[in-house]
Amino acid sequence: MSFESLALHPLLVDQLLKQGFTKPYDIQQRAIPEILKNNDLLGIAATGSGKTASYVLPLLSRFKQAKQSKDRKVNVLVLVPTRELAVQVNEVFQLFSSALPHAVKTMAVFGGVSINPQMKALYGVNILVATPGRLLELKESNAVELGSIETLVLDEADKMLNLGFKDEMDRIFKLLPQKRQNLLFSATLNENIDGLQKVLLNHPTVINIAPTHDTPDLINQMAYAVSDERKGPLLRYLIKTEELNQVLVFVSSIQRADNVANKLRANGIDAWPIHSKKSQGARTDLITKFKYGKLRVLVATDLLARGIDIEFLPCVVNYELPRSPKDYIHRIGRTGRAENPGKAISLITPDEQHHFGVIQKKIGKSIDVVESKDFDLKGF
Length: 380
Fold this sequence. Notes:
Blueprint: H1 10-18, H2 26-36, E1 41-44, H3 51-61, E2 76-79, H4 83-97, E3 106-109, H5 115-121, E4 127-130, H6 132-140, E5 151-155, H7 157-160, H8 166-175, E6 181-186, H9 191-200, E7 205-208, E8 219-225, H10 231-241, E9 247-250, H11 254-266, E10 271-274, H12 280-291, E11 297-300, E12 315-318, H13 325-332, E13 342-348, H14 353-363, E14 369-371
Parallel strand pairs: 1-6, 1-7, 2-4, 2-5, 3-4, 5-6, 8-13, 8-14, 9-11, 9-12, 10-11, 12-13
């Protein structure tokens, strides 16, 4: 199947070809026609499978002309869990809307930065990408009108519907018109989504392409058994001896992120931490440098497990294991994306061995564990 056969705007198809996309991924083949028909949709597809474009393209195709009035009424609302994802989704909208003959104004709003410039820029916005907290702040300031929403998109819906966002999401749902198109996208199907689709979705089309147990075959998963005191030297040893570049390292806390990055830099490896204590400007700058290969190692908390989207990211390291197997899948899903192979390395201490066994059982995959006690880590 080709993009031309999906009834998208011809100029969007041209832009896809310019960007090197010659054929749609599975989720795009099945979701785009349904969205163009204005159907509600629940799309479950693995991380890196093209979910964002599967709603960006048809939503842009439906805008036939520019907005006539410069009011604060938004037509499409996309809700996302993190600032980073808001920026990235908006970049995809802007990339493709720039190809259209008429202006479609898109904008991302999120916390951690001054609200005033966002309030001023909301005039004439067609498509708004927002984190829930900042959207409510803007609404309370009368900076945005949600009564004209025609389509609501929940990206990473499984995270949007968990307890951490429940109160904010309940408040937002009450502000939206009851008659609207609802699009839910997620990498996993859980009870939150399964239950909410009965409320949010009207006879939805359900597309489930995500693997039920396994993780993507494009990801080469491996692990090293290591003691606590040798974990830092082992990380530096692997980065240097295997000449790893563009490495995303996941840790469990802000303090650990700072410590690991500092140790890496002290040993001649260009690395910086990224977490919620960083300003939005600093976080955006670090992601941009990392994305374009100007930073060798980015040390992150789970804040970024779903927020960073780099098409050719070659390596992810679990310096510490996440709490749940689903978080493990989302972490390693930063690599091996869009048909590009990647490597996922986990450093397993004795205390983590049992939990690592649980993760392997849940994902239905056995991962070889290499014993590292004989590695010569002197000087690392």
